[in-house]
Amino acid sequence: MIIGIVAVSFSSIFIKWSAAPASVQGMYRLLFTSLLMLPFARPYSGAAFALRKKDWFMLGLSGTMLALHFLLWMGSLKYTSVASSTMIMALEPVFIMLGAYFLYKERTALSALLGMAIAIGGVLFIGWGDVGVSADNLKGDLLSIGGTAAVAVHMLIGQKLVVRMPSYLYSLIVFLSAVIVFAVYNFFMGVPFFNYPARDWGIFVLLAVVPTVFGHILFNWLLQYVSATTVSMNILGEPVGASILAYLLLGEQLSALQWAGGVLVMFGLAVYLYGGRKKAAKASATLQNVS
Questions:
Q1: Which residue has the higher pLDDT, 123 or 242?
Q2: What is the mean pLDDT of residues 123-141?
């Protein structure tokens, strides 16, 4: 878990270090990750042939949402600080909860709703603090909110698909779908595919290996040994780790309002995750009593 949190915390730093467009960084990050995954995909070929047309459509939609997430969130780092962007990104569970309520009518504990309200209040503090810095910072905050909404849709689609197919196969197909979306976007927007210095190519590889393989894929592997709630606590660790790294490696400073907003976001998310854990434990106990 610690290795995973440190790994994903480096994602924002690598993005800041590269001068390449966000759409190019996202495309090569997922392309190189897919190439690393392909040699281990053969055992899942049978499951791939068994997919229905509807499954392929939903996989493509999930990949599109993932590409949109990277486009908006990586783009936000061109305008605002690492701390502000990652603290807003930490609202992903809240967006997922809202989506699950409207799409699947899933109920949420009152304590989780309270945590959501506190976290949203923290985002407003961050935005207000960024207004005092520059209009560009606020633009970056809005892009990060859009990226968070997109990844929430991506996760909600995945929640329904992984019950019918191996998670490894799901990840690989979605990554490749997102690469195609990025390639089409870059082609029509006239974004160069290859004209980048060696430093940027090195960063593309680092984005694939460090935050993706040793971060997100490692978290998926951890689900075999610890609960999903425990793994989801990395949501709280990434903004803290990224902010520390941004201070040490990029010299970024935060205003008092931004710090206050960040503390509110982290506290709100802790309340939200605690409420979700209590609800899950209660549901488990009810099932055991029935059986």
A1: 242
A2: 70
Helix ranges (DSSP H) in the chain: 2-17, 22-37, 45-49, 53-76, 82-89, 92-104, 110-131, 135-161, 167-189, 198-207, 218-222, 228-232, 234-245, 256-290
Give me the pLDDT at residue 173, please.
94
Residues, the chain: 291
pLDDT surpasses 60 at 285: no
Domain ranges of the chain: 2-290
Of 170, 134, 146, nearest in space to 47 by CA:
170
- Cα 288 to its chain centre, rounded Å, is 34
Q: Using alpha carbons only, what angle is made at residue 47 by residues 45 and 51, rounded to the nearest 5 degrees? A: 115
Query: Is 207 within 8 Å of 73 (Cβ atoms)?
Result: no
- pTM for the predicted model, two decimal places: 0.82
Cβ–Cβ under 8 Å, residues 15 and 74 = yes
Q: Determine the average pLDDT of the residues in 153-170.
A: 85
- Token pair in block for residue 128: 């207000």
162 vs 171: CA distance, rounded Å: 9
Q: Name which of 248, 197, 272, 201 is nearest 9 in CA terms.
A: 248
Phi, psi of 118 (to 5 degrees): -65, -45
